[in-house]
Design a protein that fits this description.
With 240 residues, the chain is α/β, with parallel strands linked by helices. 30% of the residues lie in helices and 20% in strands. The protein contains 7 helices and 9 strands, in the order E-H-E-E-E-H-E-H-E-H-E-H-H-E-E-H. The strands form 3 sheets. Strands 2-1-6-5-7 form a 5-stranded parallel sheet, sandwiched between helices. Bound molecules: adenine (ADE). The site of adenine (ADE) has 12 residues, from strand 5.
């Protein structure tokens, strides 16, 4: 088996993950820089209806995803990689909030398995079981303080944040260093400065003069100042 990072997604809506074939991620997979598999959870059900959920013990609204199909699907998918540790990412609004730091950490994992829950979530014993397995690491991850219909969109977000950091995926790696939330340089706490391209005039608005000056020192100073202004606005007014 190959040494590139492998990503497996388990979902009841495989079609939701179709965007993985496009753009940056699709090209990276085609070039063999990463491997991606999308798996239908219902393939692991045994009843004629392909049931994946049931009513919650203790009562309450909604349905809970049953542990058995999840256990079977995760065990099967784990066999697709010879990585010593499989990192199971369970998408849930109750998880740790995704940050650039987490995305960077996840680039180091050779095998990521994304479990896309729906309804009121997955039976809690699934995370408990894999947490107890020496060849698994489990992380519950949220992409923000809002509730989605399921983990599929969150998986797309997290995979995009990770995959673009993998060496060779982005044509010009310098662009990674300059951008917002990049942890590599002194601007680690600053968001990116505003960017401009041609034409120099558009609808009466001019590109800032300094960017046309060719004075690299002045340009760097201007950009740093703009980053600081943007960052201050965000931290003073985090809701805007
Ligand atoms: N599933 C439902 N809402 C979610 C969120 N905010 N993040 C990750 N997974 C989710």
């Amino acid at each position: 088996m190959s040494k590139v990072n492998r990503f497996d997604v388990i979902t009841i809506f495989p079609d939701y993950l179709a965007p993985l074939k496009l753009s940056l991620i699709g090209k990276a997979a085609e070039a063999g820089l990463i491997e991606i598999g999308v798996h239908d959870l219902r393939a692991q059900t045994t009843d004629v209806h392909g049931s994946v959920d049931d009513t919650p013990y203790g009562g309450g609204a909604g349905m809970v995803m049953s542990p058995e199909p999840w256990g079977k699907a995760i065990d099967l998918v784990a066999e697709l990689s010879d990585a010593p540790v499989h990192e199971l990412i369970v998408l849930t609004p109750a998880g740790e909030k995704l940050t650039q730091k987490i995305a960077e950490e996840l680039t180091k994992s050779r095998h990521l398995i994304f479990a896309c829950g729906r309804y009121e979530g997955i039976d809690a014993r699934v995370t408990a079981y894999y947490q107890s397995q020496p060849n698994f690491k489990v992380r519950e991850v949220s992409i923000g303080d809002y509730v989605l219909g399921g983990g599929e969109v969150a998986t797309l977000v997290i995979m995009e944040a990770i995959i673009r950091l993998i060496p060779g995926v982005i044509g010009n790696p310098l662009s990674l260093e300059e951008e917002s939330h990049s942890l590599e340089d002194e601007n680690s706490t600053l968001v990116e400065y505003p960017t401009y391209t041609k034409p120099a005039q558009w609808r009466g608005l001019n590109v800032p003069e300094v960017l046309l000056s060719g004075n690299h020192g002045a340009i760097a100073a201007f950009r740093r100042e703009q980053s600081q202004i943007r960052t201050t606005k965000l931290t003073r007014n985090p809701e805007k």
